[in-house]
Specification:
Layout lengths: L5 H4 L1 H12 L4 E4 L1 H8 L7 E4 L3 H10 L3 E6 L4 E6 L2 E7 L1 E6 L4 E5 L3 H6 L9 E2 L5 E2 L5 H7 L8 H7 L2 H13 L8 H9 L9 H12 L5 H9 L3 H4 L8 H8 L6 H8 L4 H4 L4 H14 L5 H8 L1 H15 L7 H10 L15 H17 L6 H5 L1
Parallel strand pairs: 2-5
Antiparallel strand pairs: 1-2, 1-8, 3-4, 4-5, 6-7, 8-9
C-alpha cells in the first residue's frame, strides 16, 4: 500500500529523508501524518523516525548545511529547519521504566521496538520517502480501516507509561472510531482501573485534550464512555452526558463548538478544571447563564452575538429537550445585527452619572421588549 500527497513530496520533507537515508539510516514518517493520509484527512504535523542517534542526525545535518536545533535531544528529538520550516526527527526508542507521565527510554535500532512503545495501533504506522506503508505490528492498518481504537499491546502498560493516554483514547475514539465498532472493552476496563491517574495531569494538558475531544463531529458516545469508566468525574464532578447527543442532533450540521458541548455537560468549576483562558471562561459563563434563562432567540443574538447566541439557543434546547423554534436562526441573526439607537450623549443634557446609566438601561430594555422596533425619537419621547 502507498500514500500520496503534496505533503510527502514537499522539498523540505524529502531533503530530510534523503539526508538520513544517504547517511545509511532508516528514515520514516510516523504517526498522525500517516494515519491522516490513509484516512484522506489533512496532514499537518510530520514526525520523522530514524535509527540514527541524535548526535548522528546533527552530524549529517551539518554536512548537508541544514540547521539542527536540539529541541528534545534528551528524548532523541532534533528539529531540522529547511527553508524556515522545522521537521522533528526522533530516534527509535523503547521504554525501560515508566512513571505515569515520565518514562525512562533507551534508543533502539528496531522499528518494531519503536512501534511497540506507541500508544495506539493506528499510530504505529510508518511510510518511507516513496509513500510505502509499513505496519510493524501487523494490526494498525486493519484497526484503522475498521475504526477500532486499540492500545498497542496491553492497555494497562500503555496507560502506566502516560496517564494522558486515557484522555487520548477517548479523543481518538471520538474522531476515528467507527460508530459500529463500539469502544474497545479491554481499553475501557483499563481506563476505569487507572482513572484516578488523570488527576495528576496538568490542567493545561487535560484542557487541551477535552477541547479536541469535544470538537469532534459527534463526541457523544466517547464522552458517555468516559462517564461509564468513571474518568469524567475525575475531571469535573457533576458533569452529565445525557443531553450531549441531543445537542449534536439539534446542531444539524452546524460547525462543532467545544464550548457549546461543554456548556451542556456542565459540572463544577469547569473553567478552572480545564484551565480555560479568560476569554473562553467568560464566553462559557455567558453561554451557561443565557441558556438557563428564557430570553427569545433574537435577544440572545443581540446580547451575545451571532455565534454565541446561536449556541445558547442550542444548549437550552438540548437541556430542556424541546426543539428550537423553526425561525430561531433568523431571529438570532436579526438580534445580532440590531443596534440600540441611543447613546449616553443623547441623555446627557437631562441626566448624569448613575441616573444617566440607569435611564439608558431602562430605555434599552424597552427597546429590546419592543423587538427592537422603537425608534430613537420614540425612545427620547
Amino acid at each position: 500500500m502507498r500514500v500520496h500527497g503534496a505533503w510527502l513530496t514537499d522539498a523540505g520533507v524529502q531533503a530530510v529523508l534523503a539526508m538520513l537515508a544517504g547517511g545509511g539510516h532508516q528514515a520514516l514518517i510516523v504517526g498522525g501524518a500517516v494515519r491522516n493520509a490513509l484516512l484522506g484527512h489533512d496532514v499537518s504535523d510530520i514526525d520523522i523516525a530514524t535509527d540514527a542517534r541524535p548526535e548522528r542526525v546533527q552530524e549529517l545535518a551539518k554536512a548537508a548545511k541544514i540547521r539542527a536545533v536540539p529541541t528534545g535531544i534528551e528524548h532523541g528529538t532534533v528539529t531540522l529547519v529547511v527553508a524556515g520550516v522545522g521537521h522533528e526527527v526522533t530516534t527509535f526508542r523503547r521504554d525501560v521504566e515508566t512513571f505515569g507521565r515520565h518514562a525512562v527510554v533507551a534508543f533502539a535500532d528496531s522499528i518494531a521496538d519503536d512501534a511497540a512503545r506507541r500508544d495506539f495501533t493506528m499510530n504505529a504506522l510508518y511510510i518511507d520517502a516513496s509513500g510505502n506503508v509499513i505496519d510493524p505490528l501487523g494490526e494498525g492498518l486493519a484497526d484503522l480501516a475498521a475504526g477500532r481504537v486499540r492500545f498497542v499491546g496491553h492497555p494497562d502498560d500503555r496507560i502506566l507509561e502516560d496517564y494522558l493516554r486515557i484522555l487520548r483514547f477517548f479523543r481518538f475514539t471520538a474522531w476515528f472510531g467507527a460508530p459500529g465498532a463500539g469502544v474497545d472493552a479491554d481499553a475501557l476496563a483499563a481506563c476505569a482501573e487507572h482513572a484516578q491517574g488523570v488527576e495528576g495531569l496538568s490542567r493545561e494538558r487535560v484542557g487541551a485534550e477535552m477541547r479536541k475531544l469535544l470538537a469532534a463531529p459527534n463526541p457523544a458516545a466517547a464522552v458517555a464512555a468516559m462517564q461509564t469508566a468513571g474518568v469524567l468525574a475525575h475531571i469535573f464532578p457533576g458533569a452529565d452526558t445525557l443531553s450531549l447527543a441531543l445537542l449534536v442532533h439539534f446542531e444539524a450540521g452546524r460547525a462543532p463548538d467545544w464550548r457549546r458541548r461543554l456548556a451542556v455537560l456542565g459540572g463544577a468549576d469547569v473553567a478552572e478544571a480545564l484551565r480555560l483562558s479568560r476569554t473562553d471562561a467568560r464566553a462559557l459563563a455567558a453561554l451557561v447563564t443565557a441558556s438557563r434563562g428564557d430570553a427569545p432567540a433574537a435577544v440572545l443574538g443581540y446580547q451575545l452575538g451571532a455565534d454565541l447566541g446561536a449556541s445558547a439557543v442550542l444548549v437550552r434546547a438540548a437541556l430542556t429537550g424541546f426543539s428550537p423554534p423553526d425561525v430561531w436562526q433568523v431571529d438570532v441573526a436579526r438580534g445580532a445585527a440590531a443596534k440600540f439607537p441611543l447613546k449616553a450623549i443623547d441623555l446627557a443634557d437631562a441626566l448624569s452619572g448613575a441616573a444617566l446609566g440607569a435611564r439608558l438601561k431602562e430605555l434599552e430594555a424597552r427597546w429590546i421588549g419592543s423587538d427592537f422596533a422603537l425608534t430613537r425619537a420614540e425612545l427620547l419621547a
